[in-house]
Specification:
With 480 residues, the protein is an alpha/beta fold. It has 18 helices and 19 strands. The strands form four sheets. The chain has a seven-stranded mixed β-sheet with strand order 6-5-14-15-16-13-17. Strands 8-2-1-12-19-18 form a six-stranded mixed β-sheet, with helices on both faces. Strand 14 and strand 15 form a beta hairpin. Helix 2 runs parallel beside helix 5. The longest helix is centred in the last third of the chain and has 36 residues. The two termini are 48 Å apart.
């Protein structure tokens, strides 16, 4: 066994299990505080790998994630390698494109490449002299009593390492979390949604983007959708979200083209017929899981962060941002309790669990709403009412998307405020409708000859409201 404490003196040893996005960022946070940091990653070093295994789906970086990166001096570097997306671009079946801004002028989210971001964070972590990166280390077991961990190597050998704090950042199927599962009073749930996702690519056209680059392009089709995010190499990464049973119905290249001609006709010349036939069958559709658990800690020895604590489905674009915010919240609590881990870890659980559960629920709600509510005239009407009220009362009425994406308002507080706003606005609309009915009745009684004019005016108003539906037909997808 490697005696880390004697080897490194009195400063506590923090073992970060998982060298992905949240693990690499966490290493920077702990190293900045002066801890001796050891990062353990199952895979090889992705900076040297010819083929990067795992998910390549693009990520949308927003305010929460940027604040965490800023804390370790990485915001400017990452932002410089991202592409601003100022609005969603909705693609209708006819090929018409309609932009829907994300927020006020100047507010945008960033399209960033997952692998590139991971490489940058690993390199930054390695710059700290008190950080060591250990690849090809698969966690087999660990002790909550002693902090002793056993890792298996690809050559069959095993390594044992002891740490003062174990930070589980090893994803939705966390090996660290398995130890939590053996303990009483640990709550855990996971939910797979019936939709899977598949990635396709839109190549550059004449060396430039084939579509307008500063948008998140969305093809909403009620029970399924496709999105496209821009990359620095002038490509777009397309992600098709669809029920598994629909993926399985398509078995030949001709059926792929037939499907795309029916639902995404304008994308065929962008992706290419041959590429579509080939890439659709390159990999099977991937599953999406939502994970909730609590507590996030065991004593003062171990804590879970990122997907290990709260994997979320991608329909609110907050998975990475929530994981990055975990790092900064933990750091803030470390300041509050002067790095006393026996006080920090339970406080982290108390503070963070409600927020992570809230964003998991929001992401799942968005998925359900996308399937069921997109054609609701009331839903579309309410979108416009909310935006108008936010314009008139920017501090009183704040859209949920704005709170989640462009502020660090705690997720569960944002949800509570959203529910309160909905109740107030709905009551206001009801009172307005009742007032209109009584006012209209009074006018009809006083001026019965004008009834036809009133009916025509009411029809014109309704038709205008319905006409507003077209650019907003994406419904829930406006949350992406």
């Amino acid at each position: 066994m490697e005696d880390s404490n004697h080897r490194l003196g009195q400063k506590k040893v923090v073992a970060v299990v998982g060298g992905g996005l949240v693990g690499a960022l966490n290493a920077c946070f702990f190293a900045k505080r002066g801890f001796q940091v050891e990062v353990f990653e199952t895979r090889e070093d992705i900076r040297n790998a010819k083929v990067v295994k795992g998910r390549s789906i693009n990520l949308a970086l927003s305010h929460r994630g940027r604040q965490a990166l800023k804390h370790v001096g990485m915001e400017d570097k990452i932002v410089s390698k991202g592409i601003p997306m100022n609005a969603r671009m909705i693609h209708s079946l006819s090929g018409k494109q309609s932009p829907i801004p994300y927020g006020k002028k100047g507010q945008y989210i960033l399209s960033v490449d997952r692998a590139n971001l991971n490489k940058e964070l690993l390199t930054e972590a390695e710059r700290y002299p008190n950080t060591k990166l250990n690849f090809d280390h698969k966690l087999q077991d660990w002790s909550a009593a002693t902090g002793l961990m056993t890792f298996a190597r690809s050559d069959g050998s095993k390594t044992q390492v002891q740490a003062d704090l174990i930070v589980g950042c090893d994803g939705a199927f966390s090996a660290v979390r398995k130890q939590f599962m053996r303990r009483s009073r640990f709550n855990y749930s996971q939910t797979y949604i019936p939709h899977g996702y598949m990635e396709l690519t839109i190549p550059p056209k004449d060396g430039e983007f084939a579509m307008k680059p500063n948008f998140l392009h969305i093809w909403p089709r009620n029970t399924f959708m496709m999105i496209a995010l821009p990359n620095l190499d002038k490509t777009f990464t397309c992600t098709l979200f669809m029920p598994f049973e629909d993926f399985e119905k398509i078995t030949t290249g001709d059926e792929v083209i037939e499907f795309f001609q029916k639902y995404f006709p304008d994308s065929i010349p962008l992706i290419g017929v041959d590429a579509l036939k080939r890439d659709y069958f390159r990999l099977p559709a991937q599953a999406m899981v939502s994970v909730k658990c609590s507590p996030y800690h065991i004593g003062d020895k171990c804590v879970l962060m990122g997907d290990a604590a709260h994997a979320v489905v991608p329909f609110y674009g907050q998975g990475m941002n929530a994981g990055f915010e975990d790092c900064i919240v933990f750091d803030e609590i470390m300041n509050q309790f002067n790095e006393d881990l026996s006080a920090v870890l339970p406080e982290y659980t108390r503070v963070r669990v409600p927020d992570d559960h809230a964003i998991a629920d929001l992401a799942m709600y968005n998925y359900i709403e996308m399937r069921a509510h997109v054609n609701s005239k009331w839903f579309i009407f309410r979108k416009h009412v909310d935006n108008l009220l936010h314009f008139l009362m920017p501090k009183t009425i704040i859209p949920l998307y704005t709170m989640v994406t462009f502020t660090r308002t705690r997720y569960h507080v944002a949800v509570e405020r959203w529910l309160w706003q909905n109740k107030v606005i709905n009551r206001g609309l009801l009172l307005g409708a009742v007032g209109a009915v009584f006012g209209g009745s009074y006018l009809l009684i006083k001026n019965p000859a004008n009834i036809n004019k009133l009916v025509v005016s009411a029809e014109k108003i309704w038709n205008k409201l319905v006409a507003l539906k077209a650019p907003q037909s994406v419904g829930t997808l406006s949350q992406i």
